[in-house]
Amino acid sequence: TGESVPFNLRRFARGLIPITIALGVTQFMVSEDSLVARRFFSERLADYNAGRRVGIMAYFLILPVTVVLFPKVVAGLTQAGGPSPLKQALGAALVVGVGAATGLTFFPKLPLWVLSNEVFLSAAPYVTKFAWAFAPLSLFTILVNNLLARERYQAIPWLAGIAVAYSLCIRIYHPTLDHLILMLGVFASLLMVTAAWFSREASGKVDAGGGLPHSLPR
Q1: Closest Cα partner for 101 from 121, 124, 129, 120?
Q2: Of 174, 147, 137, whose CA–CA distance to 56 is shortest?
Q3: Which 3-state string (H, E, C) describes the chain?
Q4: Which residues contact 173 (CB under 8 A, 6 or more apart)?
Q5: Do 68 and 89 meet the contact criterion of CB atoms below 8 Å apart?
Q6: Taking a C-beta distance cutoff of 8 angstroms, is the pair 55, 129 a contact?
Q7: Structure pTM?
Q8: Is residue 218 a contact partner of residue 193, using CB atoms and an 8 Å limit?
Q9: What is the pLDDT along the chain (218 residues), one digit of tens a residue?
Q10: Looking at residue 81, what is its pLDDT?
Q11: Structure confidence at residue 84 (pLDDT)
């Protein structure tokens, strides 16, 4: 049995705020366009919501991968060699996410027909657009969980700033519902690229001042 490790309150508090912000960014990106659409649009809102509900499945299919990734990255920090959990997770996400988005591109009416019995078949164009808009957000979720597991919090202010810019962009300028989906895809891609950059910098490292390997039982 390893030695017991005292609870490090300072380290816990240091990580609590950035972790909360990072998780909040993801949830914010998932819901903000819906709130803006509800406030500023009334035409075709039923189709928009129906297409969104189906298109977002490409995002939720990948969430279990992020749940598995976090402990694997933490464990990997104490072990040398072996496959990278991040590369495995990204590979699985690409297969599942791109596969789901491709399927919804070719057969957008099928899930609508199953769920609504032809009531919302007119929402098919939104299904395809949302599927691809949420795809980069799925990869971002994996990348930001990797950063949190490695305690690389330098990326968090940048990610929060992108989320705020996204909100301002669609609340100030929202000519069409399609524009909301386009901006979702653009800013989700920007989040993904930013998180990927910091993940590259963080590969194999943890923050100075208390890395995980030094806090584990010996």
Answers
A1: 129
A2: 137
A3: CCCCCCCCHHHHHHHHHHHHHHHHHHHHHHHHHHHHHHHHCCCCHHHHHHHHHHHCHHHHCCHHHHHHHHHHHHHHCCCCCCCCHHHHHHHHHHHHHHHHHHHHHHCCHHHHHHHHCCCCHHHHHHHHHHHHHHHHHHHHHHHHHHHHHCCCHHHHHHHHHHHHHHHHHHHHCCCCHHHHHHHHHHHHHHHHHHHHHHHHHHCCCCCCCCCHHHHCCC
A4: 179
A5: yes
A6: yes
A7: 0.82
A8: no
A9: 456 667 676 777 778 899 999 999 999 999 999 999 999 997 779 999 999 999 998 888 887 776 666 566 556 555 555 557 778 888 888 888 889 999 999 999 999 998 887 788 999 999 999 999 999 998 999 899 889 888 889 999 999 999 999 999 999 999 999 999 999 999 999 999 999 999 887 665 544 444 433 333 33
A10: 52
A11: 75
Residue 208: partners with Cβ closer than 8 Å, 6 or more residues away: none
Name the nearest CA neighbour of 158 among 166, 146, 150, 149: 166
The two structure tokens encoding residue 114: 């199953």
Burial class (CB in 10 A: 0-12, 13-18, 19+), 175: exposed
177: which 2 tokens? 């519902």
Contact (CB, 8 A) for 138 and 91: no
Tokens of 176: 């069409």
